[in-house]
Every structure is written in C-alpha cells, then in structure tokens.
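new request in #modeling-help
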Amino acid sequence: MADTDDASRFARIALPHLDAAFSLARWLVRDAALAEDVVQEAMLRGLTYIRSYREENPKAWVLRIVRTTAFDHMAQQRRVAEVPLDHAAELPDPQRSPEAAFADAEGRTALARAVAALPDELRECIVLRELEDMSYRDIARIAGVPLGTVMSRLWRARQMLRGAALERQP
Amino acid sequence: MTNPACERWHLLLQADHDGELTASEATDLMVHLAGCAACRAERDGLAALSEGLRALPRHAAPAALRAALTRQAAMPPAAAPPRPRRAWAGGALGLALAACIAAVMLLPRAPDPDAAAIASHIRALQPGHLTDVLSSDQHTVKPWFNGRLDYAPPVRDFASAGYPLLGGRLDYLAGRDVAALVYGRDRHIIDLFVWPSDQSGSAEHVASGYNTVAWNGGGMRFVAVSDLNMAELRGFAALWGDAGR
C-alpha cells in the first residue's frame, strides 16, 4: 500500500512531467476527456509502481506508464478507425520542395491531422521523438520494442507524414 | 523517387537527424552525402518535417487534472501517518506549485479553505491554468459546470460594473471539487470559489500579498481571492450582495 513517503516521492518524479504525460495521452487517444482519464489512471498506477522505480530517466518512466494505460484504453475502445498501412506506399518525391509544406498555419493543421491519422504504433514513436524529445533507447523502453523497430517505425511515420504533406501540395 | 541503392543510408540519415549516430557512422554518412543529391534532399525533408512537428500546439494538462493529481499525491488512499509539515523544494515544480501542495497537505489537520484558495489562485495564474471554459457569457459558463459538479454554482457577469466575467474552471478546495469563476478588474485577476456550505459569517484575510474576502449566501460559500486592493475586492463582493445572494 502506498504511504506518504511513496506519494511524495511519486509526486516529485511525476508532477513535473504532467504536461508531457497529458500531451502524449492526448496524441495517443485523440480525445481530451479520454486523455484526462488515461492520465488519472496512469498516475494511480504509477503510485503503486513507485517502489520498483529504478530508471534514470523519470520522464521516460512516467511516459511508459501513460503509454501502457493509453493502449489499454484504446484496446478496450477501438472506436476510431485506423488508416490502413498501405498509405505508406505514397512515398514523397524529394524533388518537390518539402520545406514549404509545414511553414504556414494551414500546413501545421494538416500536419496535426496527418499525425492523428497515423497507425497507433507509428504515432507513438513520432510523438515521443519529435514532441517529447525522447532518445531511441527511451522510446524502445516506453513502447516495449527493440531499437531497430523504433528506427523503422520512425522512418515509416516520417515518410507517411511527408507523403501526406506533399499530397496537399501539387 | 530516391535511389534504391541509397536505402541502406536512410536509417543512418535518420539517426544522424535524431542525434543518435556514432562518430564513425557520421563520417561515412558525410562522405556519402557529399556525393548524393537524393540523400541530401532526404535529409532536408526530415529537417523540414521536424520543424513542422515541433511547431505543433502542445496539449498542456488541464488545471483541474493537475489539481486532482496534486491532491491524490498529497493524500494517498492509505491511512496516512503524521505528515511532515513542509513543502518539498523540487526545483522544477516551482514555488507556486510547492505552495499549493503544502497548503493541500496541511488541509486535513488545519482546514483553512481561505489559505488553500490563495494557493489555488496562485497556481491558476500559471500559464494555461486559469480557465477551463473561456467565456464572458454567464449562460455559457454556468451550463459548463453541469455534470462536472454535484451542485449548480451561481454565475453572474459584472462587466457593466467593471468586473467582467472571463471564464471558469474546476478546482479543488475544502476537501471537494468546487467551481472557480474568473473575473477581471483592470489588469488584475479575481478567482471566486463557490461551493455549497452552511458555514456562516464573512471574513477578510491578507496573506502573501493576496487579499481574500469570504461570505455566505444562498447556501453557498463564496471566497474571492486576488492581488487587487481590498477596497475594490470588497466592491466586487458587494455586487454579489446587490445581485441578491
């Protein structure tokens, strides 16, 4: 049972990363209210795991719990249709200028939509890498996959996002 | 389309972009890039995408969630042994959050909703935490609380008297979820906490540079907190009296 020392230790570790926790949950479950539930539950879980906390990177530890909780919720719900993987076939043509695609507000809105449309396992990698600045090793630990898988998922996610952007820009 | 022969360079390009390359790999890649326009374009594409992704809006944790979790952390479900009377000095947490946690931790022993109200007010002043529902329309703010609270707080706009309603949020005070209404007065912010209570009597309070005015009416406890001067804060409280509290 968690006692006060556990609770204060947990608060010291987790609360500084609350915004990151919520942001990750929000990107994964794609719904603000559901993201709140996920973070609430993740924090309760975290409090019960705190005695086994040994990792050197507290943010990665917090995000791992949030990620696991979010995927549990998503598995239960399965209410959002996923974009089929063969979208990945639409690879970008590097001859066309990719630099302009994300420069304006409209481009960023489209980019956010494209991220939301990524398959879950690609979305989590790209959000952890680009928005939360996690290392490959941390992402591997959070997602529970080998390092090579992280690299190939990141590559696929990026190709799909660039493909979506260039589709918008004839 | 990229040269299929370059595929073996792609993950190296990406690792370089992500700052994950070893020195020897980086040297090999540099030599290749010097002679391969397709891979240079690929590298630029990765950079442009990263820039776009990093410019995406962040989803900050809602204030009510932060408040709930702070409370959870400070008061675990187990029967707690005596608590140390101190706020921890977690650098990243910042003074305001520490003050808030300290206030919440002390609550079970010395219930002082007024002190907790000041802590909530300070915490709410941090960027992005002030309002959950942003509206100057009392008919928008009031229904927002439906289903979020087990009571209906009175919501009024006093813009004509110089105290415009800015919005509202859920907060945690006096051992329960409460409505916090946010008002403006010139450049000052007033938080008005409202919850059902049969407590009676008015009170005024100065602490940490913040003024507090508390009163009762219609079965509700009202606590207004602001760095506004006491006279104007009293004026705000009086408006509620005139509105028939």
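bot summary: Chain A has two domains: 4-77, 85-168.
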